[in-house]
Amino acid sequence: MNAPKTPKTFHVKSFGCQMNVYDGERMAELLGAQGMVAAGAEDAELVVLNTCHIRERATEKVYSEIGRLKHRDAAPAPMIAVAGCVAQAEGAEIARRAKIDVVVGPQAYHNLPELVSQAAAGSLALDTDMPAIAKFGSLPARRKVGASAFLTVQEGCDKFCTYCVVPYTRGAEVSRPFQAIVDEAKALVDAGACEITLLGQNVNAWDDEAGHGLHGLIRTLDRIDGLKRIRYTTSHPNDMSQGLIDAHGDVESLMPYLHLPVQAGNDRILKAMNRSHSRDSYLRLLDRVRAVRPDIALSGDFIVGFPGETDAEFEDTLSLIDEVRYAAAFSFKYSPRPGTPAADMDGAVPAAVMDERLQRLQAAVLRHQAAFNQATVGKTCQILIERSGRQPGQMLGKSPWLQSVHLVTDARIGDLIEVRIEAGLPNSLAGIETVGLAA
Ligand code: SAH
Ligand code: SF4
Ligand code: F3S
Known about the structure:
alpha/beta; Rossmann fold; Transcription Regulator spoIIAA; 4 domains; 6-stranded parallel β-sheet; 12 helices; 19 strands; globular; binds S-adenosyl-L-homocysteine; binds iron/sulfur cluster; transferase
């Protein structure tokens, strides 16, 4: 067998959640700092598959990606590194089945350059250690970023919802130090970011010894010159402190958007999921958030077909959706994950029933999303320009409520401009810049 030679070009492909996108960017920066050059997936000499383990489909994708890379047309097979949550959960198994070169877990990717050298010397390089947030101190400085950037502040999860692999793939809840986050936020702004989304599997569990809490961190970041917008995701209902709710009332750069997954609307199912909140406690929490920020856009995650979910229990999820009137939502068919308690539960819901429930749920969400979008028509709001659109002169930006807005403007990426919303479509809005328009 030919030992793979040291790669000079690389490509990082990320799947899964926003934290994986962030990790992918950091791995690219790390490889770039070694003198390697970014290239396409068709011809890069090293391809990093930054994988997701959350549902069965996500895992299957890894094997098909590996197969495709091994038989790509444009160039010989690359050195393949499997990173991310699949690497953590079953990296050794993949290495046995698919002959890859590097396996690196989400808490160990600061060692990627060393692992690549090891693989270049001809042996499988595997690192799935989980030191608590050691990696951040060993990563290079942030380089150029877009108008909207991600910043991981918290990782891991102690909640152990019975269906979920994240506590196993990402480890226990750990918060990055306050100053490291503030420094990285400043570096991101210097590198071109106007908006920062703070990331964590349970981002609102972030804290430090001084007891700043996420709201204290947000209030500090709010004072960074040039940082126009702050967002955070994903939150757990039980970690939504009054301090954080209050911040939504008076921190101007904190956007009126809250992604607060509930998963289901029935208390028996919530209990079986080990969510440790009830339908009612969730709804009361939203009342408190809406009291300080009436226009807040709410989004959620839902799982249909959890083991044993009856038709009536599913109806409770639909009625919750109607009660909350979500501006957006992500919904999934339950997928049994090896090693999780729910995988051993009885009462598997037939695939056809899951399909039907998912369709009904998504139709309900779409109805509320369209109504939410329609309600912004005629309003004037600030739009952060994020990229150019397909048509000449067209730019795309985001409303405070995270809606995509397209408009014709001379404004440039990173500009925050006043826009009147003219039309609401199910997935986006059309606007007109109000500068020069009669009010
Ligand atoms: N920490 C976040 C996100 C976790 S993963 C949170 O708690 O909200 C994102 C979403 O994937 C979850 O909210 C859940 O809706 C979905 N999910 C997780 N495990 C799943 C599984 N086994 N089957 C189907 N959906 C799942
Ligand atoms: Fe998974 Fe639950 Fe933790 Fe979210 S809170 S990451 S769904 S275990
Ligand atoms: Fe997937 Fe891991 Fe994120 S399992 S959703 S990539 S934390």
